[in-house]
Specification:
The chain has 2 domains: about 150 residues, no CATH class; about 230 residues, no CATH class. Helix 1 packs across helix 4 and helix 7 runs parallel beside helix 8. The strands form 2 sheets. Strands 3, 4, 5, 6, 7 and 8 form a 6-stranded mixed beta sheet that branches. Strands 1-2 form a two-stranded antiparallel ribbon. The radius of gyration is 26 Å and the shape is elongated. The protein is α/β, with parallel strands linked by helices. Helix 8 links the parallel strand 6 and strand 7. The chain has 16 helices and 8 strands.
């Protein structure tokens, strides 16, 4: 009988497999390769190069085996031993229960929750047991690969930088706490989006954002002209300190949500809708003109909102300095919503991570997948528009 608690995980895995088979192929291949290596280690009772009196034989190269799966053809290197006694049962079990094994591998990739849980699921679905140390080794190799992505050198300039954070529940020391996942996305001069960094932090403090941004700088981040982010005091202070040369665009979507804090609960008129329309104007001059009309219309009814908006709204108009073709993409952090939706969909399965490392593993894995999709897609922005816009500004200044 299937445990009802497993249904959300099963549904998420099925959805992942049906929607992103190409993205999973390399992960499935890598994990299956690790499983073959783990089988050989268990059979010989020794790791590669390990000297021990208890070892039962020696490795002797590989032969290639192609496996046709639901996620495509996998080219695997099957280890051999000198005496020719090693024989993997993985392929036979895979052919008998292909979908179940792919689901298991997907869960190892997607959840990264605990070696015990993965071991139990593998035994139940595949009839094959892997030791906790073997599963930990697989996760370590995944972590090493993801860490290489997260620490790669940023060789090119990124004129646009988008920063955001989300919170996930993590169990540390027996206590469940919300921890921040800091995310940075850059747009290069080819107009392509790239995920530049994903890091964990206890909270969104000035020091955590400062450390995050300094890490990007140390990896080569340069040429930032505009930063799009929410209005968070710690984040803004870190931007001023580390990216002082960049203009700051406060996300207008978050600004409109914050406006609700300055309205009575039962406000049901067009006040906020008219405020939102200011961000569809052709120029900052039009926006400011209509802002004056909006203030005159609503200041008697909502003086608290009007006072707050007059003090803070100008920093949401920074995007008007950009070419008009870029406005809709850079007046908010909405370009991160697709990534955040994917993260939410996967973290819903886990609910509470056993540690920060497992949370970081999942989010970084999803970030790598999204990053590669972005690089393969058509460019997000035409940066020739920005170059021409700069030339026009120089001509006007002259």
């Amino acid at each position: 009988m299937t445990n009802s608690k497993d249904k959300p995980a099963a549904a998420a895995i099925k959805d992942l497999l049906s929607q992103n088979p190409d993205g999973l192929r390399e992960i499935v291949r890598a994990v299956m390769q690790e499983m073959l290596e783990a089988e050989m280690t268990d059979a010989l009772q020794a790791e590669k190069g390990e000297r021990t009196a208890s070892r039962l034989g020696y490795r002797s190269g590989y032969y290639t085996r192609t496996l046709v799966t639901r996620v495509g053809k996998l080219e695997l290197r099957v280890p051999q031993d000198r005496d020719g006694r090693f024989s993997t049962e993985l392929f036979e079990r895979y052919q008998r229960s292909e979908q179940a094994l792919v689901a298991t591998l997907a869960e190892m990739y997607v959840q990264g929750v605990s070696t015990r849980k993965v071991k139990a699921i593998t035994e139940e679905l595949c009839g094959h047991s892997f030791s906790a140390s073997a599963i930990s080794s697989i996760n370590k190799r995944l972590d090493d690969s993801l860490a290489q992505f997260a620490s790669r050198r940023l060789e090119e300039p990124f004129p646009y930088l988008i920063l955001d954070a989300r919170y996930e529940k993590v169990r540390e020391g027996g206590i469940v706490r919300s921890q921040a996942v800091l995310i940075a996305v850059g747009i290069d001069w080819d107009g392509r989006r790239q995920i530049l960094g994903v890091e964990m932090a206890n909270r969104e403090s000035q020091s955590s954002w400062r450390t995050f941004l300094l890490g990007l700088r140390e990896r080569g981040l340069s040429g930032v002209e505009l930063v799009v982010a929410d209005d968070h005091a710690g984040l803004r202070a870190a931007i001023r300190e580390v990216l002082s040369e960049a203009a700051y665009q406060r996300c207008y979507v978050h600004f409109l949500r914050n406006a609700l804090d300055h309205l009575p609960r039962k406000a049901d008129d067009d006040c906020l809708q008219e405020l939102r329309w200011l961000y569809d104007r052709r120029s900052v001059e039009e926006a400011r003109r209509d802002l004056s009309a909006w203030i005159a219309k609503w200041e008697a009814r909502y003086p608290r909102l009007i006072a707050w908006a007059e003090e803070t709204i100008e920093e949401t108009f920074t995007f008007y300095r950009l070419p008009r073709q870029h406005h809709k993409h850079l007046k908010s952090t909405n370009m991160l919503e697709r990534l955040n939706e994917e993260i939410r969909r996967r973290t819903y399965v886990v609910r509470i991570f056993p540690n920060a490392a497992s949370c970081c593993r999942l989010v970084r894995a999803l970030a790598v997948e999204m990053h590669e999709n972005w690089l393969e897609a058509h460019r997000y922005l035409n940066m020739d528009d920005l170059k021409e816009h700069k030339k026009d500004q120089l001509r006007q200044a002259a």
